[in-house]
Amino acid sequence: MTRRFFAILCLMASASLLLCAAASSRLDRVPARDHDRINPLATQPESVAAGSLVYRDHCAQCHRADAKGDGRKKPPLRSDHLKLATDGDLEWFLRQGDLAHGMPSWSSLPEAQRWQLITYLRSIQ
Amino acid sequence: MIQSFLQFLLPIAGLLPGLLLGVACIPVAQAQEKPYFVTYSHDLEEPGNLEIETKTALAQPGQSHRYGATATELEYGARAWWTTELYLDGQATAQDSTIFTGWRIENRFRPLMREHLINPVLYVEYENTSGADKTLLEVVGHDGQSDLAEPNGEARREHQHEAELKLILSSNLKAWNISENFISEKNLGHEPWEFGYAVGAARPLRTLGSGKPCVFCLEKFMAGAEAYGGLGDTFSLTMRDTSHYIAPIVGWQLPLGRLSFSTGFGLTSSSLDRVYRIGWAFELPQVGNWFHSRSGGAQ
User: Are the beta carbons of A70 and B114 separated by less than 8 Å?
Assistant: First the structure.
């Protein structure tokens, strides 16, 4: 009985590890040239304000106005994942989305507005 | 034509204050879709959002009366890669009647989960409309202005049960969206396959966000053009007697929705001389969550 319990525990732990690996690997898959890209609008003073408007119009409906997510499927955007990611990683992720997991592609937003959004996200970490 | 346009708009204008008041009372999101009327891009509805859109076409076929036809569209983002829609169509013809002309159900799927240079979307639609439908949401086969000139009493007797397939190819390049649609439509009552196309290109007038809430900022406007027309059918795969249009388009993102305008110019003798179009869309965010909250689910 104990052996079966440990086997189930091991299976669950493995599954959790796999899920975590899968979750973190979305940003790990960023191509090197995108990973190294630098936000050209990071130092522009109006970028944070402009990015906050982009956030309000397009992101807040899922990730909430305070960027803390909905506690279920929509993750918080104040997180270590975001802190560790480069601006290039975030731009790539916004452009690509993650359709299989519910995140739309925002390639239809002009690239300049994606960079402004990233500047805003940096400012609230 | 301008007079007829205003005559059609007058009753709508009467309803506008009530509509705006209603919309102002509910949270509204901003869609990322393009202001095309016929062409589809690869923008799908955000998952959980419901977009309500009306597309109105105003025209006057030669030797017939002017008309206004409206398609009301309920578009729901079922998944990030799947959008499903219901259309309800109707039209009013001067010196004739105002009638409901049918409904359509469509689904759009993105088969590739990544963004590519060219992004395919598969479109599947079932239409249950009458011959009096004049919304011109697509032009296929040998569709022409003579089809739109029949009196409503006669045209509505014809029932169209049609399946429509589209291959949508779309790219976002340097703030431009460029979309191409290949359309095939089959009347399920032993009619041939009909073919058509739609292509469009549009971009915002300014790509950089201005950093202050505004209504008239250039980044709130999109401009572009679309072209669409028929390519014959399997019985007669020829461009003869087909209709083709080219239409400049303008979209304006307002706090409570998106307004779009277009004037289509007919390019062949089968085409309508001009088609004026007006679109209004607003999006209700995360509609699915409303039901979760009411049933005691997580907020």
Answer: no
So where are chain A's domains? 3-123
ipTM score assigned to the predicted complex: 0.84
Cα separation, B41 vs B73, whole angstroms: 16
Could you please state the CATH topology (level 3) that the domain comprising A3-123 is classified under: Cytochrome Bc1 Complex; Chain D, domain 2 (1.10.760)
- How far apart CA A34 and CA A3 sit, in angstroms, is 47
pLDDT truncated to tens, each residue of chain A (125 aa)? 456 655 555 555 554 444 444 444 577 789 999 999 999 999 998 999 999 999 999 999 999 999 999 887 889 999 988 999 999 999 999 999 999 999 999 999 999 999 999 999 999 98
Write out the two tokens for A18. Answer: 């796999």
d(CA B123, CA B141): 18
Query: What pTM does this model have?
Result: 0.86
State whether B46 and A49 contact (CB < 8 Å). Answer: no
Among B46, B213, B289, the residue with its CB nearest the CB of A53 is B213
